[in-house]
Design goal:
This protein is 60% helix and 12% strand. The protein is of the alpha+beta class. It folds into two domains: 170 residues, no CATH class; 194 residues, Multidrug efflux transporter AcrB transmembrane domain (Multidrug efflux transporter AcrB transmembrane fold). It has a four-stranded antiparallel β-sheet. The termini are far apart. The relative contact order is 0.10. It comes from Panagrolaimus davidi.
Length: 437
């Protein structure tokens, strides 16, 4: 388990594009994108989302100035001073013109309210929306913009490593997310007007990883609940069949611990074979714990039934541990194997017919089910053999005590019978002797 934990933490890497099915059109588009921006490695792409804290429009001068010094701010200043608007800038939505070149604003402005009237509008410094003023020049057909988005892209340069790109993207995220975070330029970002949100591939992968790790407490809680229910169920049935011993509790605990050990072994084997550890693999302990413990319960139930039969009809053969283990495995072994093979074949089919992340999940679950089957047929059967030997010794000791008690009772009964018989005969002889004299 410790080896698996270290290997998984070292090789943990999530692929947010791994949930798209094989052959999906999005994969082809992503491949073309990476050929353009990241032909030598991971391309850099960071999206910055700016919203006004008061919920007003982003077209106000101080807000635009804080976001970026661009054409809208220039045209607004010209309009406010009643100067001619620059003919080189036509700032309308969805297509604007800058120095004769058209460009789209649809990828940058969101939550718009357009006003197509012929009146002139300008951006008021004190209003959260554009206001009418017939003395001002017409700046844009946008009356309200809720959010402005910037996308920063950079092509992967020779000498960069993917970790460098990811560290930079996370640095941008932390710069806007945490006002006390110190970046390389040694300054913090704080605004009284804007709420800034950052989105990047690395940030999404970190969030997916964090969400996957959040399952660990649920696995722990579910494990302890299952431990409690397992112990209660096994102990109650053992009391009902008059087979209770403290070793039965060990069997109940091992039935829950064994699937988790199998998961640790399977994940360690995966990382040793070169598979990456993804957050989706955190689901495997829940699946294996729910499925694998069922086989242990079958073995415990059959073990108790065999013991009851052997105690009712004791012989030299059924007092051997080999006989009892063979009887248990001959009854439930085929069912356990069929169940394990069914789950493994289902995972094998899923590994070839779904997305990369689901393939990783299916491979991990397949290995876990195979390992838990091996552990149950070896470690768990071995534990049952050790406990069974103790139970057989206890049965022999109890049977020996019962024989000694029965022998003592027989001796006492014969003594009493002899005493009564002797007393009766003595009285007869005494009567005859008295009669003669």
């Amino acid at each position: 388990m410790i080896f698996a934990d270290k290997k998984c933490k070292k090789n943990q890497r999530d692929d947010i594009f791994g949930y798209s099915p094989y052959g999906a059109r999005a994969r082809t588009e992503l491949q073309r994108y990476e050929e353009f921006f990241g032909n030598t490695g991971l391309g850099m792409a960071v999206g910055i989302f700016a919203l006004a804290k008061d919920g007003g429009t982003m077209l106000r001068s101080e807000y635009l100035k804080e976001v970026i010094d661009q054409g809208f701010e220039i045209q607004t200043k010209l309009a406010e001073s009643n100067q001619p608007l620059s003919p080189k800038m036509h700032l309308h939505y969805p297509i604007s013109t800058l120095f004769g070149r058209e460009f789209s604003l649809q990828n940058n402005f969101f939550g718009l309210e357009l006003n197509n009237e012929t009146d002139n509008f300008f951006v008021s410094q004190n209003s959260t929306k554009l206001s009418k003023n017939r003395g001002k020049k017409h700046v844009t057909n946008m009356e309200y913009v809720k959010m402005v988005v910037f996308t920063l892209r950079a092509e992967h340069q020779i000498g960069w490593e993917d970790t460098d790109v990811k560290n930079f993207e996370m640095g941008v995220v932390e710069f806007f997310k945490n006002p006390y975070f110190l970046t390389l330029i040694r300054r913090n970002y704080h605004s009284k007007n804007l709420d800034i949100y950052v989105l990047s591939r690395t940030y999404v992968e970190e969030e997916v990883k964090r969400a996957g790790q959040s399952l660990i407490p649920y696995v722990s809680v579910g494990f302890f609940i299952m431990l409690f229910c397992s112990v209660i169920g096994v102990v109650v049935r053992a009391y009902y069949l008059k087979q209770h011993s403290t070793d039965k509790i060990l069997l109940a605990l091992a039935s829950c611990i064994l699937p988790l050990l199998a998961c640790g072994t399977a994940l360690a084997l995966m990382t040793a074979m070169g598979f990456r550890f993804s957050s989706i693999l955190c689901v495997i302990p829940l699946l294996v714990l729910a499925i694998g413990i069922d086989s242990s319960y079958l073995m415990i139930h059959e073990w108790q039934r065999i013991i009851q039969q052997c105690r009712e009809n004791p012989t030299h053969e059924n007092s051997q541990i080999e006989y009892r283990i063979a009887e248990v495995l001959s009854e439930v072994g085929p069912a356990i194997m069929i169940s394990a093979l069914t789950n493994m074949l289902a995972d094998a089919v899923g590994a070839f017919t779904s997305s990369p992340e689901i393939t990783l999940l299916c491979v991990g679950n397949l290995l876990s089910m195979a390992v838990v089957f091996i552990y149950q047929m070896t470690f768990y059967v071995g534990l049952m053999s050790l406990i069974g030997k103790k139970e057989i010794k206890a049965e022999e000791k109890k049977r020996k005590n019962q024989l000694e008690i029965e022998d003592a009772k027989n001796v006492e009964a014969r003594r009493i019978e002899f005493t009564v018989s002797f007393s009766f005969r003595f009285k007869i002889v005494q009567k005859k002797f008295t009669k003669n004299f």
